[in-house]
UniProtKB/TrEMBL annotation:
NCBIfam families noted in UniProt: iron-sulfur cluster assembly accessory protein
Alphabetized Pfam families for the sequence: Fe-S_biosyn
Organism per entry: Chitinophaga caeni
Protein name: Iron-sulfur cluster assembly accessory protein
Domain of life: Bacteria
Amino acid sequence: MTTTAPVTLTAGAIKELKSLMDAPGFDQQQVLRIGVKGGGCSGMSYVLGFDEKQEGDDFFEIEGIPVVIKKSHGIYLFGMEVDYQDGLNNRGFTFQNPNASSTCGCGSSFAV
C-alpha cells in the first residue's frame, strides 16, 4: 500500500536534501524528519532534520528521500510545501503551510 505524503518537497528542496545526504560522513541509516514542536514567536515551530525512525512515525518516500512524520503531527502539516531558497536575501529551507492561521516574520513558526 502506498500512502501519499502529507507534505511536498520542491525541486530546490530535493536537490539540497540529496546534496546533504550525499556528503561524506552522512549516516545512511538516518531519514528526514519533518514535524512541529511547541515554541517560536507564533506558538509552534517546524522541525526539519535527519533522525532515526521512531515508533509512532509514518514513513514516506519522496523522490527517493526517506521521510518520517509523527502520526500526531500530520494534522498540522497536511498540504505543506517545503522549499529551499538559495538567493542573496534568503538562504535556507522555507515552509508554506495552508493550515497556519498566522506565521512569524522569519517563517519558521506558526499558529493554527
